[in-house]
Structure formats: C-alpha cells, structure tokens
Amino acid sequence: MTIELTGKAAMITGAAQGIGEASARIMAGRGAAVMLTDINEAGVKAAAAAITAAGGRAIGMAMDARDEASIRAALDASCAAFGRLDILHNNAGGTDPARDAQALEMTNETWREVFAFNMDSIHWGCKHAIPLMIAGGGGAIVNTVSGAALVGMSNQIAYGSAKAAAASYTRYIAVQYGHKNIRCNAIAPGLIMTPNALEVLPANIVKALTKHNTLPRNGRPEDIGELAAFLASDAAGYINGQLIRVDGGSGIRSAHDADNRDIMGLG
Ligand SMILES: NC(=O)c1ccc[n+]([C@@H]2O[C@H](COP(=O)([O-])OP(=O)(O)OC[C@H]3O[C@@H](n4cnc5c(N)ncnc54)[C@H](O)[C@@H]3O)[C@@H](O)[C@H]2O)c1
Hints:
The model has no long low-confidence stretch (mean pLDDT 96). It contains 9 helices and 7 strands. Helices cover 46% and strands 15% of the residues. It has a 7-stranded parallel beta sheet with strand order 3-2-1-4-5-6-7, sandwiched between helices. By secondary structure, the protein is an alpha/beta fold. The protein has a single domain, classed as 3-Layer(aba) Sandwich (Rossmann fold), CATH 3.40.50. It binds nicotinamide-adenine-dinucleotide. Residues 13-14, 16-20, 38-40, 43, 63-66, 91-94, 144, 146, 189, 191-192, 194-197 line the site of nicotinamide-adenine-dinucleotide.
C-alpha cells in the first residue's frame, strides 16, 4: 500500500513554519485537503498559499492552541470547508527555556502555560475532532511530542513533563476510541533544525544534542512530516497508540557512547 491521502481532509496545528508546515506540505502533496492553523495568521496564510500555488488544496487560518474555543472553531471551519475531517495533527507546542528550567525555580504561571500549550491543546483537539471523525467513519490523530518526554533533563521540566503526559494521553485515546475506527499515535522528534529550535536553543546545547546523533546529518522538519503523513494514511491502518522516535538514533544510544567513540579514535 502506498502513502496516499487523496479524499482525506486534515487539520494541522502550528503549521506556519517548522514541523507543522512540512507536515501540511507533505500531506497536501499526497492528495489531502489541508487546513493549516497557527497563531501567526500572516505566516499560516502564506504557508497555505504556497501549497496552493504548488497545486495542493490548502487553507490557512488563525488559531490559538492555548484556547479551547479557538481550536474548536478551527476544527469546525475545517470540516465546513472540506466537508469532513479525517486527520488531526496536534503539532503546536514548545517552551521558553529561559523560564522553563528546574523545578524549584518554576513559577506556577510558567508551569500552567507550558501544560496548556503542550498538553491541554492536544486534549482539546482530540475532544472536538473525534466526534467529527466518527461522523465520517473514523480518522487518524498524530500528536507531536518530544524525545524530552522519554528522559530526564537538567532543564525544561515543565515541557518534558507535559510532553510525557501527551504521550500517555495518546495511548488512552487509542484505547478509548479505537473501536470507533479512530487511531491515535505520537511522534517523538529528537533535535529537528526548525526556526524555533535554532532560535531558542543556545549553540552549545545544540552541539551537545547533535553529539549523540548516530547519523551523518541533522533532523529536518520533513523527517517528521513524512511520518505524520504515513501515520495518517490507510497504510498505517493497523498502527494505534504507538510512540515513534524520529531522532537519528540519538535516543537509543548509550549515554557514554559518543565520548567512547572519541576515546577510541573513531571520529
Ligand atoms: N524542533 C525540534 O527540535 C523539536 C523537538 C522535539 C519536539 N518538537 C515539537 O515539535 C512541534 C513543532 O515544533 P517546531 O520546532 O516546528 O516549532 P516552530 O516554532 O518552528 O513552529 C511552531 C509553530 O507553532 C506556532 N505557534 C506558537 N504558539 C502557538 C499557539 N499558541 N497556537 C498555535 N500556534 C502556535 C508558531 O507560530 C509556529 O509557526 C512542537 O510541539 C515542539 O515541541 C520540536
């Protein structure tokens, strides 16, 4: 079976740039009608216009993923525009490492903000998308989480915890609505060279993160978009409740291996 999305309608959050934009572009290229949503209205409209100019079917709409009513309005608009909803890519998320660092210094405001953006948004997306999908016979949800959900780190405790909650939530949705033909899977990206990652992460942190990569190149937004399109397609029709790492193998590498490699003179 090939990865074909013709006849399907998708909504993607955080789609003005980075991973969400790549996911939208790839899904549209496989034939899906795509609603791109983002807090950056000008950016998301430009991203949708570029897809349309390339021959795809896309609309861009302003949406704030921290606001349930805004997510619901975007899902309703998507369904109204395309007549159905088959795919939801809950992708919007992120954190401010300057405020989201270690537990004892964390303000409650930052904690709540990060959870609203990275976890509540996914709950609201699922809550309002699933009835629309069931009405059309089923659907596929893809949640962008993070490798940070699977480890412990010296910074970003709220982000890592919220992404871990989202990974767990993915399994619960898969179990609770699988019998209605709703599949829900999560992608855990490692470092992906998106505008946001390059902007918020200091160069020395990027260097430390890329040191554990097993492959000779860094992650690209398209690496995540390709998997999102696959998971959304009928080719993945028997995959439900899974968390898949896309990280160049950095997550499975022994903590000491990159240093060992240097010591062994393997380059
Ligand atoms: N880039 C990485 O290395 C990496 C690694 C692991 C996980 N992730 C996750 O991937 C997802 C996408 O990240 P990215 O790197 O592409 O980021 P990005 O900043 O490049 O893109 C994120 C998009 O979300 C939009 N956005 C910001 N606030 C929003 C809001 N309140 N409502 C709606 N949209 C909003 C931004 O305008 C932007 O277009 C996030 O969930 C992030 O946590 C990224």
